[in-house]
Amino acid sequence: MTRIYDLARAEFADWGVDTETALTALAAIPISVHCWQGDDVGGFEQRSGTSGGGIQATGNHPGRARNPDELRADLEFSFAQIPGKHRVNLHAFYLDTDQTPDRDQIEYQHFTPWVDWARDKGLGLDFNPTFFAHPKADDNLTLSHPNAGIRDFWIEHGRRCREIAARIGQELGSAVVNNIWVPDGSKDTPVDRMAARQRLESSLDAMLAQPLPRSQMLDAVESKLFGIGVESMTVGSHEFYLGYAIRKNVALCLDMGHFHPTESVADKLSAVALSVPDILLHVSRPVRWDSDHVVVLNDDLLAMAQELVFADLLHRTRIGLDFFDATISRTAAWVIGVRNMQKALLRAFLLPQALLKKAEDQLDFTSRLILSEEARDLPFAAVWSEFCARAEVPSGQTLCAELNRYQTEVSNRAGTKPLRGIGT
Ligand code: RNT
Ligand code: ZN
């Protein structure tokens, strides 16, 4: 009997596309799965977290992970529903220890259970200093705070995170991305933007001063347009960090929710790639604002994947996810988001790139449009199902059943937090 995949393979071959090459390429792309979707960005510090950040997980669906063991169990379940080998993106306040170090006291030893687990499961890790949910970030000012003592506290936190990231990278034999995002900004119109930006710049310089091997860790900086409570000015704006990344030779993180809704983040990739060495993506879905919805297979995601493939940027782009939805199953959110990122990449690999580029080169925009539109109907689904089958992960109805089964299992976890955002 001819399998659906074989028919699809023949159809793609007609368009000059080899599905086997696409499957091999997709299998080689790790997605960095953000730990913070698992517990609504709560973290595991054994101290009461307070305010800040301007970001917010809303919802109160049962089953939130309450400790590192539950979070790891949820991640393991999720990875079993996702084809391929991936990474886990840790935030510093997800430390796993009985000790209670403040942010300027954390050390590698506070993360060893994560590293042992990752090694055991064959996963990579990434890292983020946590510049929010802390009394010293109550004003939504950290590295750009006018008070030098507060700046120094956060600089020390950032330095330690870089060292921890490098050590994790060394232990796992895979460079850890250490992504710096600070919430710093102003609710109302500031009068001295320059001073704030100069303070952020010199704090970053101090934090990044120590050279660390690229084989162990990679620094990234993440810009933002605005947040809750910082509506009028963000110190680390896009222009600020684009310039900083170029001057300091660090990776630029583009979060899909951190621009004006009419801007295309996909369009930015080729533009910034000419000037920055590495790119980190925070794949997210803004709905009217930076709402961090679970990513769906929409035009934004498809365009992003197409740019990564067509502009040949995958070898210097790290793909991370960044969303937090507390109104649905946390594990389903992960599984849906990662699989959609993979589906978008697969579609991009399966597009008749050579034909499309040739039409454009020849200024044959009619053919470009015809080909693009006809290509939408190619049998992508058959290739995706084959990818899942080879990886022995479910798809379709079986996936729904698995996700629901696990959610029922975790629903009776006690102590689910009431509706909260960071800082509310
Ligand atoms: C916030 C940034 C940042 C955070 C994480 C938790 O707007 O997107 O990446 O989501 O650090
Ligand atoms: Zn982000």
Structural description of this entry:
By secondary structure, the protein is α/β, with parallel strands linked by helices. The protein has one domain (29-350): Divalent-metal-dependent TIM barrel enzymes (TIM Barrel), CATH 3.20.20. The chain is built from 14 helices and twelve strands. It has helices at 4-14, 19-27, 68-79, 112-121, 148-172, 193-208, 238-248, 265-273, 299-310, 330-350, 353-361, 365-375, 380-390, 397-410, and strands at residues 31-34, 87-91, 124-128, 176-180, 185-186, 217-222, 233-234, 251-255, 279-283, 285-287, 289-293, 317-321. The chain has an eight-stranded parallel beta sheet with strand order 3-2-1-12-9-8-6-4. A two-stranded antiparallel sheet has the order 5-7. A two-stranded antiparallel ribbon has the order 10-11. Residues 418-424 have low confidence and may be disordered. Zinc ion (ZN) binds at residues 181, 222, 255, 282, 322.
